Amino acid sequence: MHRRYQDRASAPGSLGDVLRLIRSHGAVSRSGLARMTGLAPSTVALRVDALAAAGLVHEVGSIGALGDRRGRRVALDGSHGFVLAVDLGANHVRAAIADLTGAELADTGVLEHGVPLTGAVGARETVAQLWRRSVTLMRDSGLDPAALRAVAVGVPAPVAHPDDRLVAPSFAPDWDGIVLADLFAEHTAVPVLVENDANLIALAERSDQHEPEQSQLIAVKLGTRIGSGIIARGRLHRGIGGAAGELAHTAVDGTSAIGCTCGVPNCLESVASGGALIARLQKAGVAVTSTADLLALAAQGDPAVVDELRDAGVRIGRVLGVVVNFFNPKEIVLAGSMSAAPPLVSAIRSELYRMCLPLAADALEVRASRAAQDAAIRGASILALDEFLAPARVDELAGRAALRTASAG
Ligand SMILES: [Zn+2]
After folding, report:
1. CB within 5 A of ion ligand 1: which residues?
2. Are strands 104-107 and 93-99 parallel, antiparallel or unpaired?
3. What pTM was estimated for this model as a whole?
4. What pLDDT does 150 receive?
5. 227 C-alpha to center of ligand 1: Å?
6. Contact by Cβ (8 Å): 394, 117
7. By mean pLDDT, which of 23-32, 47-56, 112-121 is the weakest?
8. Is 127 a member of any domain?
9. Distance from the CA of 267 to the center of ligand 1, in angstroms?
10. Could you give the number of structural domains in the chain?
């Protein structure tokens, strides 16, 4: 059922669990690991040695006078491999590489041309060209493609779980039902994860790295379309089939300005997304073709645009008010190009606080994304690392190594 290792359980104190603690704490002493896991110091030493032998951790800090090692701590070793993160959009693609600690090694930046995205060439050819572009990025950065450990690809569409199938992708309607991971598998044997881009933004915005289970947030991507991702107790919540967070297809007051594949009449996205605003303003004779145009006109105080943004903000805020009462998150994070429109954001805030219970509002912080331009690609790196370093995966590899050792002996 669970194709992803990161969704599988791992026993407390196992090799994978010890690696998880080291990863979430940055650098930790052996005695700290013993305290956190309840393992005997000798068992901690065995675990750390096995992880070091696998190239996953190393010791940092100085050895004191007379060889005193008490200042030494164990940290993730980022140097034995890297992950590839891809952000695929309606009109752009971006690829980036991060080491195993998540530090960025290379980034193509946003490419508006260079990889044909949809239409004539089909998904297989798009993936083939994307792969070639990624290998070039690795080589240009002095990285050996053989050291690639995992790939994560963000798409602006729902992704069904557990099979990672694209569902009615509005950015490429002819890709409906396509499993991008299978197309990548024609080029690489490493795990390839495909994820909704709003889910990746939510992962990138997950805070409290030391206590990730404290993180409870909803990231809302406001762009041409509207998407959202949910972090519940530090983990991405996809729901049973991958549809969690599809709040954009809630029926709202107002009239659709664009079509939507969801079939819900007057859904939030068809009434209040950037694309809906553009369509409605065009009909009214305003020269606007992109969300960048909307932002520019809003900055000039264009009254028709400001009115549309305020109305849209009220509708989005009202839906989020329901979501906040239901989920009681700590944070609502606003991301995507439209989150840079002040009239939209202030209307969302005031309507949201007006519509939710004081008990839910008291703990709530509504904030802008910390890295609006980079959140999706950062989230893809995190997802790829979460998979490669997943406790259940490390446990399984350790089990296989132990079997090999036993049969060799
Ligand atoms: Zn819809």
Report:
1. 249, 260, 262, 267, 269
2. antiparallel
3. 0.91
4. 97
5. 11
6. no
7. 112-121
8. yes
9. 5
10. 3
